[in-house]
Design goal:
Elements lengths: L12 E4 L2 E4 L2 H23 L2 E5 L3 H11 L1 H4 L7 E5 L1 E3 L9 H10 L19 H15 L12 E4 L24 E2 L10 E4 L1 H4 L4 E6 L5 H9 L7 H4 L6 E7 L32
Parallel strand pairs: 2-10, 3-4, 3-6, 6-9, 9-10
Antiparallel strand pairs: 1-2, 5-8, 7-8
Helix pairs in contact: 1-2, 2-4
Length: about 280
Amino acid sequence: MEDTGPNPSFLPEEIQPGVMVCPEAEEVARAAARMFVEWAWQSIAAEGAFCVALSGGSTPRVMLQALAGETFRSQVDWAKVQLFWSDERCVPPDDPESNYGLARRELLIRVPIPDANVHRMEAEREDLGRVAQEYEELLRRYLEHDAHGLPRFDLIYLGIGLDGHTASLFPGARGLRATSRWVSTPLAPASGKRRMTLTLPVLNAAKRVLFLVEGSAKAEILRTVLESNVEPPLPAQLVAPVDGQRWFLLDQAAAALLSRQPIATDPKEPGSSGQTEHTGEEW
């Protein structure tokens, strides 16, 4: 693969198993884009497709801009990429709060991905329960299934809220672990409005989950998620792929309160085939 970016020798530092730290937020976004490219190559070579669930937020925005830029855009076989979303607000796609709208503005109109490969959550519809069922059918149609019949994404991007929520899975919600649904429509506590989200079993069936976290405001909750025993566990703590990899990609500000732990194996470049797998038992 050709050099990616002005400093191709730069590697994030792994301070805990699966926890990678970049000096600045912009480098988090570039590293996340580089991982997208690397994993796309691997998945397309092995399976003929790359199935990804995107998230919203400021860090994914910069990552999407990087993917759409000259360095990365030509390194992805976009015709073989299938894009989904990890969650969505119940707003039209042209609303500034729409996760799909963010991806469309920053990425989709700038890369040659076929419209048929883009699978947004139509959460603005009034029949939200029906929309969730239809999205489950999309997952059933496009994704391979694991031994338990759950859909396996090649990659899911996630963030962490100040309350420890991830995707639209909120603390105190019922049935986070014990659900047969692949897509749910929970109430967001802060707004009292419904959202659409992939459920925890789907997140934990993924081959790779990548948390993108930046800024000093996230330092305390990140330390809680990674280093504290909370009862009941926060949703972000419950994300631990059963047979896959879990990565946290952070900037120095977000990682400021984390301890440094010995790494059992030599650090590998994020996205390389030599990564250590991080399973639920290792959490």
